[in-house]
Specification:
The complex is a heterodimer. By secondary structure, chain A is of the alpha/beta class. Chain A is built from six helices and six strands; from the N terminus they run βαβαβαβαβαβα. Helices cover 42% and strands 19% of the residues of chain A. Chain A has a six-stranded mixed beta sheet with strand order 1-3-2-4-5-6, with helices on both faces. Classes of the chains: A alpha/beta, B alpha+beta.
């Protein structure tokens, strides 16, 4: 049963976009951001690159979605309600979750990046960033060419 | 060559102590010299007087009381002839004798039988058939002069030495007393905007230096707090600006990469426009707060009718369909620009609209010398932990962090800034009547 507030976009992501490869989905990505517009943009560009996506808006939704959907990667905003993205990452790593974590944040000082790295994040992207960077980060972490 | 560097405080203190020592020692030396000279001179004169008294006693047949062997004495008649000791050369000149016949005289001069420095004391001591008998006593004053010379020598040598000791002691004392100040100065030199957590070393005790240290550390703590708030504000502002910029950039990128999909392009451009509007509002809010911080919000002489301004603002304010907004109360003319009042009303109502279930009540009235505006809603109210910082910048409830809450957390901060600029006060709480949040603004009435 879906967590309240969690949106499953697997169907949307399977819709063909320009240049997408509809025959071979490349992995499942969980996008967690309390800004639905930004989450929507991330989902659209990742779907276009061939990834299935689910979204969440808060830290507790992220924890639930990881257990429920077992994504290959998480795109995680830091400033999300109830449990910050850093806390989500830290808890997932403490639980032994080995998937890829990409932290995205409008706070991108060296201290913020170091905090994310210590929490177990694989890649940090400071907002705003080119959407190709997000796709490249997911491709790299999931070993997709 | 002039000194290019000012003298250190301890050097100046040492010089000041030396100057005071010179003055003090000079006065003391003069007083000592005068007193000692006077005492010695008086002692000689007294000795001479005793000797003359003895002469007088002998003349009257009384027993002689003795006298110093250093004193030469004689009795002479009115003609200047020495009566005793017989055959001695007279000590007095004829002019001195003429005066001594009438009164006591004391003369300092050379006396051949005594030396270059001598003192004579003569006075009439009796009368014989031949007339008045004058008693004369004389003694050398050379010991007095030698004592004075020795005193001058001691003062000339000892005075500068004493002054040097006083100056050195003052320098050492000043250095010891100022050591905590030097330590504070050295520590202060290492404090920068990047290391505001550092504090000056504090000496123990309760003296002036310790008080200075405490005062400076308290000032550093205030500076640290201020810088912390400014950094937090800049961080928050950067975050709030980057978030819509990220969406704006993303939408434009998507539109650029999907030129063939006109519907998708139209949606992206519409979304980009919304983000541009959001950025504009955010920038204006930040500008308003910056002007408030710079003291550029001045109420001037402009007045505004609060109830009418609230009704007018609410009429044009977009809000959720399920929410009704009621404005009621009595007119109140307050100080301040109409734009400020409109801004206050719109921010409070927009904030209430995010959380209200169905009702927002705007109440206007007067309370003493203030016009009062209260905006209440029937939403969940302020969380207890948010109330103390409800008017802080970028302050939002946990469930309103980020975009979904709708605001950047500047609305109530701007309300507070504008109200304070008008000389008023703001309070946040939860409404007894509607059960949700309640914000009260009081602005001084015009003419009060």
């Amino acid at each position: 049963m879906p967590h309240p507030g969690l949106t499953c976009l697997a169907d949307d992501a399977s819709m063909p976009g320009p240049g997408s490869d509809t025959d071979s989905r490349r992995g499942l990505v969980l996008v967690v951001d309390d800004d639905p517009k930004f989450a929507g943009i991330a989902v659209r560009v990742l779907a276009r690159a061939g990834y299935d996506c689910v979204t969440g808006e808060s830290g507790d939704q992220a924890m639930w979605a990881v257990r429920e959907h077992r994504p290959d990667a998480i795109v995680l905003d830091v400033m999300i309600p109830y449990l910050s993205g850093i806390d989500v990452c830290r808890r997932l790593r403490a639980d032994g979750w080995a998937g890829a974590v990409i932290i995205v944040s409008a706070r991108s000082s060296p201290a913020d990046r170091a905090t994310a790295a210590r929490a177990g994040a694989d890649i940090f992207l400071g907002k705003p960033f080119p959407l190709s960077d997000l796709v490249s980060a997911v491709d790299t972490l999931l070993g997709r060419p | 060559m002039l000194l290019s560097r000012p003298l250190s405080l301890r050097t100046r203190l040492a010089m000041l102590a030396a100057a005071w020592a010179i003055v003090g020692l000079g006065v003391a030396a003069v007083l000592l010299y005068r007193n000692l000279s006077g005492e010695l001179s008086t002692a000689i004169t007294d000795e001479l007087a005793v000797r003359v008294d003895n002469l007088a006693a002998g003349l009257n047949g009384s027993s002689v009381q003795g006298g110093s062997a250093l004193v030469t004495a004689q009795t002479v008649d009115v003609h200047g002839d020495v009566l005793s000791p017989v055959g001695a050369d007279p000590l007095l000149t004829s002019r001195e004798l003429a005066r001594a016949i009438r009164e006591q005289i004391i003369v300092d001069r050379e006396v051949p039988s005594i030396g270059q420095q001598a003192r004579l004391l003569a006075r009439p001591i009796g009368r014989t058939d031949q007339g008045v008998v004058v008693g004369v006593a004389a003694a050398s004053t050379a010991p007095l002069q030698r004592a004075k010379d020795r005193l001058i020598l001691v003062l000339a040598i000892g005075g500068p030495a004493l002054i040097a000791v006083v100056a050195a002691a003052a320098w050492l004392l000043a250095r010891a007393a100022l050591r905590p100040v030097r330590q504070m100065a050295a520590e202060a030199a290492t404090i920068s905007a990047a290391r505001t957590e550092r504090r000056l070393p504090q000496s123990g005790g309760d003296d002036e230096i310790a008080e200075l240290g405490r005062t400076l550390n308290a000032m550093l703590a205030r500076i640290e707090a201020t810088l912390g708030h400014e950094r937090a504000f800049i961080d928050d502002a950067a975050h709030e600006l980057r978030t819509p910029l990220a969406v704006l950039r993303g939408e434009l990128e998507l539109a650029a990469h999907e030129p063939g999909d006109r519907h998708a392009v139209a949606l992206s451009l519409a979304s980009a426009l919304e983000e541009a509007d959001r950025l504009t509002r955010l920038t204006e809010d930040l500008l308003t707060l910056a002007r408030a911080d710079a003291g550029q919000l001045m109420p001037g002489e402009t007045i505004t009718e609060l109830l009418g301004a609230a009704r007018q603002e609410v009429q044009h304010l977009p809000h959720r369909d399920q929410v009704t907004i009621q404005v009621r109360g009595e007119p109140a003319v307050v100080r301040g620009e109409p734009e400020w009042v409109s801004h206050i009303v719109s921010n409070l109502v927009a904030n209430a609209d995010r959380y209200a279930k169905s009702r927002i009540m705007v109440t206007v009235g007067s309370a003493g010398a203030y016009g009062r505006l209260v905006v209440a809603d029937d939403g969940p109210g302020f969380p207890a932990q948010l109330l103390p910082r409800a008017f802080d910048r970028f302050s939002r409830g946990e469930d309103a962090r980020g975009y979904s809450g709708g605001g950047a957390g500047l609305g109530l901060a701007i309300v507070a800034s504008l109200t304070h600029a008008a000389g008023g006060t703001v309070k946040a709480g939860n409404s007894d009547s509607l059960g949700g949040a309640c914000v009260q603004v009081e602005i001084p009435l015009a003419g009060r």
